[in-house]
Amino acid sequence: MLQKVVRSTVIDAPIARVWAVLRDFNSHDQWHDVVAESRIEGGERSDQVGCVRSFSLKDGNRIREQLLTLDDRQYKSTYCIVEATVPLLRYAATVTLKPVTDGNRTFWHWESTFATPPGREHELRDMVAQGVYEAGFANLRRHLQRGGDLRAPGQAAMPVAIALPTRRVRLQGYGDAAQLRMEDTEAPPPAPGEVRIRQRAIGLNFIDVYQRRGQIPAMLAPGGTPGMEAAGSVLNCGEGVHGFLPDERVAYLCPQPGAYTGVRNVPAQWLVRLPPAVDDEVAAALLLKGLTADALLHDVAPVRPGARWLVHAAAGALGQVLCQWASRLGAQVIGTVSTEAKARIARAHGCAQVLVTADYRFADAAQALGGADVIVDGLGKQAQQENLAALAPCGHWISLGQASGPLAPLDPDALLAKSATFSRPIVFAYVAEPQALGRRAARLWAALADGSIKTPTIERFTLESAAQAHERLESRERSGALVLIP
Ligand SMILES: NC(=O)c1ccc[n+]([C@@H]2O[C@H](COP(=O)([O-])OP(=O)(O)OC[C@H]3O[C@@H](n4cnc5c(N)ncnc54)[C@H](OP(=O)(O)O)[C@@H]3O)[C@@H](O)[C@H]2O)c1
Fold it and tell me: Can you name one GO molecular function term for this protein (predicted)?
């Protein structure tokens, strides 16, 4: 006989806030005490109907559940168990929210039907009713209180409508690192579609240097603030933003610079929620480079087992992530670096062979290894001719960046002799759709969790030391990633 459990409660928070949590099928490990850890399978979005969450309970049980329906207008979702180590058979559940008419409160109805092995009806009904539903009500209340949605008596919520004082790095004019200066500023309230973030770590990327030098004037004008990525916590959300709560830990990459600051407004479409295991500095060091690696390995040049990947600056921030992940996916990775010390780092990060060259001469050595099927080139100008010479027949030269200066115009006929391919991708195009961003970020965190990539080595600078951090980034004396701490 089918068992039925029905529970309901009233939560002292507006329906939009409660729904923002519950509509996220993978949020329960952040608020429900019985859940140890949870992930969405296959890199799907956690509000995608059909997605499967795979989670473990603190008592050691494992459960896989599928999201069957999600209705943002009715505030209703249904889901079922597809596999579990607890004997809840044919379990299907419905969550429904309704606004309470007097005040900003929410009525939450949670019900399910399921079968059990004979004799265990009572025990399992109690487990669902008390251990899952009643405990869940209490845990979500506490979660919302911690996020500031529910105000304890006398406690002030973060006002949405006021500007907040902060500090930012201003680019005085194009040129060297001394053009980066600190100044006081204000972060205005988030506009519709934006989230205001208290930043805790800001990732540095070589593109910040190109912008500072004036090599990409369309991206950053003098007077502006550099920086493409950061991690921190949500302060508040502009109109029309769903799915983020105050105090939630998030990270972003964004094609509009402006990250070198303490508080920043970012369009919600570029944000990802951070898993508990990924701290702010790691997220800021890894997100943009990791998603770039993901796009290269899975889309720009999907890895074929045994393919020879020649990766320049293999001990650099992107290089370390890319070489490990490419090698784990079956590529034979050949790295180039400028010193023996960096060669040791590159070998420890997935390179089967390392070519040590400070003067961009590597083609003969690469040809001696059979030629490169794929070249990942962040060097640009100084390596242009060597890259052509290093390619294997039908090879693919991916021009990602220009650390040694911009490429000279490329004659298409230069590719003809080897029937080669040339591409010039940029990561933002590969995460412009929120679904793609969610899928790639989930794959990146999973690669970090399963050891495909190690936690990056990180050098820290204060936000005030942004100029020194840029000098360090350009120096060729370092390896790994740099972050600024506001
Ligand atoms: N298109 C995209 O979406 C995308 C995304 C991420 C990164 N990138 C590109 O990928 C490359 C790596 O970026 P990253 O941020 O991870 O930097 P990085 O690799 O940590 O630093 C750049 C490295 O380039 C090498 N280099 C060679 N010539 C140089 C020169 N003249 N000046 C300075 N460095 C030189 C250095 O390594 P050695 O001393 O070992 O040669 C240096 O460590 C950059 O070109 C960047 O623009 C592109």
Answer: quinone reductase (NADPH) activity
Mean pLDDT over 103-119 rounds to 93
207 lines ligand 1 (CB under 6 A): yes
CB 428 within 8 A of CB 291: no
Tell me what the mean pLDDT of segment 75-86 comes to.
96
Same domain, 388 and 445: no
Is the C-beta atom of 426 inside 6 A of ligand 1? yes
pLDDT, average across residues 404-413: 95
Question: Ligand 1, atom 31: nearest CA belongs to which residue?
Answer: 404
pLDDT at residue 149, rounded to an integer:
40
The two structure tokens encoding residue 392: 């294997």
Whether 463 has a pLDDT exceeding 90, the answer reads yes
The C-alpha atoms of residue 17 and residue 55 are separated, in whole angstroms, by 24
Which amino acid, residue 128? V
Largest CA distance in the chain: 78
Tell me if 354 CB under 6 Å of ligand 1.
Answer: no
Report how many domains make up the chain.
Answer: 3
Q: In angstroms, what is the span from residue 242 Cα to ligand 1's centroid?
A: 36
Q: What is the DSSP code string of 359-418?
A: SS--HHHHHHTT-EEEEEE---GGGHHHHHHHEEEEEEEEE---TT-PPPPPPGGGGGGG
Task: For residues 2-17, give the mean pLDDT.
Answer: 90
Token pair of 144 as six digits: 């919302």
CA of 401 to the centre of ligand 1 (A): 7
Question: Is the CB of residue 56 below 6 angstroms from any atom belonging to ligand 1?
Answer: no
Tell me the per-residue pLDDT of 168-185, one tens digit each, with 9 for 90 and over: 999 999 999 999 999 999
Q: Which of 424, 444, 467 is the last residue of a domain?
A: 424
Determine which residue's CA is closest to atom 47 belonging to ligand 1: 401
Task: Note whether residue 298 is domain-resident.
Answer: no
Same domain, 136 and 9: yes
Residue 402, domain extent: 305-424
Q: Does residue 469 share a domain with residue 404? A: no
Which of 45, 29, 18 is closest to 110 using CA atoms? 18
| 412 Cα to the center of ligand 1, angstroms | 25
Whether 259 and 311 share a structural domain: no
Query: Tell me: the pLDDT tens digits for 239-291?
Result: 888 778 777 899 999 999 999 999 999 999 999 999 889 999 999 999 999 99
Ligand 1 center–CA 442 separation, angstroms? 25
Question: Does residue 357 line the site of ligand 1, with CB under 6 A?
Answer: no
Proportion of the chain above pLDDT 90, given as a percent: 83
Q: What residue owns the CA closest to ligand 1's atom 24?
A: 313
Domain with 318 in it: what CATH number?
A: 3.40.50.720
